[in-house]
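Hi team, as promised in this morning's meeting, here are the two structures we talked about. I've kept the exact order from the run log so nobody has to guess. The first one is mostly here for context; it's the second one we should focus on when we meet again. Sequence first, then the predicted structure tokens.
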Amino acid sequence: MRRRSTGFHEFIRAIGKPEGQVVLDLGPTSPANLHFITGLGHRAYNEDLLLAASDPELLIPAAGGDDKRTINVNRFLAENLDYEPETFDAILLWDLADYLPEALVKSVIDRLHRVMKPKGILFGFFHTKDAGPEAPYYRFNIAAADTIELRRGPQFQLQRIFNNRHIENLFHDYSSVKFFLGRDNMREVLVIR
């Protein structure tokens, strides 16, 4: 399934020039994305944070003494997103924040702020409707400067729905947040550090 995206088109226009920018893709490895980004003359990095967050070795007992478990955030951040401050000019967040375990969301967004250059740009999707645990998870592949191809990926469970205020609060350390409404229950967001 293909999806035209105004927000993504603005993201691509923002990183179009100069060449040599550093872009971080936070989805599953996509040859199409790597090819597109390097075709712009940029360096591409990739980390599949959702897959990394599903590692059972990261689970520790939750506070409260019951049988619940949570993610060891410090260990996760030590093993992922371990870059020097201000490394990236641009980041493709995709819909990662909707699927990450709650314990990781704020810490990951804060870490992204640290590894982005001032005036760096981040592009993401946020669901606008809770489709329940059966909501399909998609991998995002860049098809063109304004088009993204969605392919069904492994079955990860949608964890939450952020409204506009939640998204603004999530990115409160950033200088601007711009919203684009999609017709398919997805909100597009461009964030400037």
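And here is the second protein, the one for discussion:
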Amino acid sequence: MEAKHEKFQRLIEFCRTLEPVPTAVAHPCDRSSLEGAIEAAKLGLIAPILVGPRAKMEAVAAECGLDLSGCRVVDVPHSHAAAAAAVQLVREGQAEALMKGSLHTDELMAEVVRRDTGLRTSRRVSHCFVMDVPGHEQPLIISDAAVNIAPTLEEKADILQNAIDLAHALRAQEVRVAILSAMETVNPKVPSTVEAAALCKMVDRHQITGALVDGPLALDNAINLEAARIKKIDSPVAGRANVLLVPDLEAGNMLAKSLSFLAGADAAGIVVGARVPIILTSRADSVMTRLASCAVAALVAKARRDSAKAVE
């Protein structure tokens, strides 16, 4: 079995060869969020712009022995102002990524999705976990387990395209998406199986592009070749999926946490579909998870720059 964190280590080492991504860090006013930003800066993954009450951030830094001297600080009075100012830095082109500090996710995302001053695009915003599962050959992308609670078919199409684009940004040689349900046959009594079939037809019609997509598939025959063989599923995806599209937030959250707490996986979290990648971390996240989340954002930002240059 491979060493723990090996895939994330490779990801971080590659991103250290890139230019640091200017990143607006909203309200990093506790140890975990401030230390995560500073450690990512030390590795050259991001160039943090710390947005929050200066006195509070400096007090946390002093208490934890962190050096803020190389960081730009934007002084605002409270967390709501920090979220708004961080989003504004992105809108002004001063930041290419957004990072959550010690404020509630809802508070940050409310500013992101504002119609007049936010970071909306034509695409639905969605969340992806990039999972480093010990013993599994490559990272697994799971979406959506944190933002869209019970997505419609239309919203799932955007969630799927966002996840495919992320897999390409992470340099996957071939993107293979399994649309998960409790079974691998279409059953009108199980809506997720019908929506899976519709999504596959949308892929056939080039409404969703960039990947091999199959579904419905149960989890076992999505990621295990022997399970797919036993069930006689003839598919280029079955048993080999590297992206898992879940039916709803509850299923995705339980799947990701099962992998983390039962299989020892690490889960980097990122929101895609906005103008820039948004790094979502929790106070319980390890330093490795925080660094990997920054590395994922760095690759997404690079893919956006490369795409913009290609258009020019």
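Starting points for discussion:
The two ends are 45 Å apart (CA to CA).
The mean pLDDT is 94.
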